Amino acid sequence: MHPILKRRSRLVLYLAVWLVFGLLLTVVFIFGGRAPPLWSLYFAVPMALLLGMQSLSYWYLAQSLPPGETPIVRMAVMWVAVGLASLVCWLAIGYVWAQYLLPDDMDLGDDAAGILGLMIFAGAIGISLAVLGHYLAGAFERSRNAERRALELQVLAREAELKSLRAQLDPHFLFNSLNSVAALIGNDTAAARQMCFLMAQFFRKSLTLGREQSIPLAEEVGLAQTFLAIERVRFGERLRTRFDIAEDVREVSVPPLFLQPLVENAVHHGVAHLLEGGEVCVTARRREGFVELVVENPCDPDRPPSRGTGVGLVNVRSRVETLCGHRASVDVAATEEKFRVSILLPYSGATAAALRATA
Predict the structure, then answer these.
(1) Which of 113, 138, 273, 283 could make an SS bond with 300 (beta carbons 3.0 to 4.6 A apart)?
(2) Which of 122, 149, 176 is the last residue of a domain?
(3) What does each C-alpha distance from 279 to 37, 338, 339 come to in angstroms?
(4) Domain count, the chain
(5) Is residue 172 part of a domain?
(6) CA 161 to chain CA centroid, nearest Å
(7) CA–CA separation, 91 vs 85, rounded Å?
(8) In-domain check, residue 155
(9) Is the same domain home to 301 and 347?
(10) What residue numbers bound the domain in which 310 lies?
């Protein structure tokens, strides 16, 4: 469909331009052709609007003869032929309009001269401007389409990256959970059985929520609490937990399975290496225009080097950067006795909008 006809506002603006052209043509007839003012107005304005509506058809020819892809000679011959045909047709309608359709009391007068020449000149100018305008409109339309395709490709690339990160995360959970069950089977079969039951509940819920683009922070905290309950079967009193989640951030949208890798690392790389155990602390509060999520755990300065793949923290950092870019951050502070991960996310509406953009 013609871009000018897609919106009423564009058509009104287009006709307004040709109305101005008609008023200018009226002035030219009065002063250049010595035509009566009233006759010039009644004749020039309708003829200008007619030329504007006639020129709408140039859009389709301009699209079939794109500059840079069409030989100059062919383009020139085509437009000259089309322009002459349009001009002849417009002049013929103008003759009929002046001779038979104007009111009888409107006479051109004996002093008028050169009206035909002025009509030919004005028509050529109008047609040339219409062709140029349609080429400019086509260039603008192609630019907008290219920009839209670039944005679509950017969104698709981000979706693919997020799906890849989520697919990477699932086997990471399963690998560490099966290690925990294997460690219990030889020593405490009842605890291993209980852990398998809790794991079934946890994976069922995590798989359901993992299909969502975003979930409330409260549900993500619930998943983390379920995971820590599973780990408590293995570690007993050595594993202690503390959650301090402010009420005004519980409904903030976050990626599913977002806290999971952090609390998992806190247990496997922190508390697990301490004979007396330790406390995993999860806090969330609003800080100006952001939500700050903090996971802290004690660690043994003499612990052996980790044999893990490092997927968890890298995954969280990648998802934060992919979803929110420079508006969010992941900071890690490690000392000999404490490990702390702090995440800043845009608060509420901004966070939800970033996540919905990937849907």
Answers:
(1) 273
(2) 149
(3) 93, 11, 12
(4) 2
(5) no
(6) 16
(7) 10
(8) no
(9) yes
(10) 186-356
Q: Is the pLDDT of residue 353 over 50?
A: no
For 121-140, what is each residue's pLDDT tens digit? 999 999 999 999 999 988 88
Residues 6+ apart with CB under 8 A from 6: none
Q: What is the pLDDT of residues 259-268, one digit of tens each?
A: 878 888 898 8
Query: Do residues 249 and 284 touch, judged by C-beta distance below 8 A?
Result: yes
**Pair of tokens at residue 93:** 């309608």
Same domain membership, residue 200 and residue 56: no
Q: pLDDT of 135-189, one tens digit each?
A: 998 888 888 888 887 777 666 555 555 555 455 545 655 676 677 778 778 777 8
Q: How confident is the model at residue 94 (pLDDT cuts 50, 70, 90)?
A: very high
For residues 145 and 235, membership in a common domain is answered with no
- Which residues pair with residue 342 across a beta bridge? 294, 331
Q: Place 90 in a pLDDT band, splitting at 50, 70 and 90.
A: very high
Instruction: Quickly list DSSP for 142-158.
Output: HHHHHHHHHHHHHHHHH
Residue 286 belongs to domain with CATH number:
3.30.565.10
**What are the beta bridge partners of residue 345?**
291
The pairing of strands 239-245 and 278-287 is parallel
Per the structure block, which two tokens stand in for 295? 């996971």
Q: How many CB atoms lie within 10 A of CB 7?
A: 10
CB distance 4 to 63 below 8 Å = no
Q: Which of 191, 267, 184 is nearest to 225 (CA)?
A: 267
Contact, 221 vs 209, CB < 8 A? no
Across the chain, the runs of DSSP E, i.e. the strands, are: 215-216, 239-245, 253-254, 278-287, 290-298, 329-334, 338-346
Quick one: 80 and 7 in the same domain?
yes
Last residue of a domain, one of 149, 177, 207: 149
Cβ atoms of 273 and 234 closer than 8 Å: no
Q: Is this prediction's pTM over 0.85?
A: no
Does residue 246 contact residue 291 with C-beta atoms inside 8 Å? no
323 and 204, same structural domain?
yes
In this structure, what token pair is assigned to residue 50? 């007619």
For residue 42, tell me if it sits in a domain. Answer: yes
Would you say residue 21 lies in a domain? yes
Q: Are residues 128 and 210 in the same domain?
A: no
Interatomic CA distance for residues 138 and 329, integer angstroms: 42
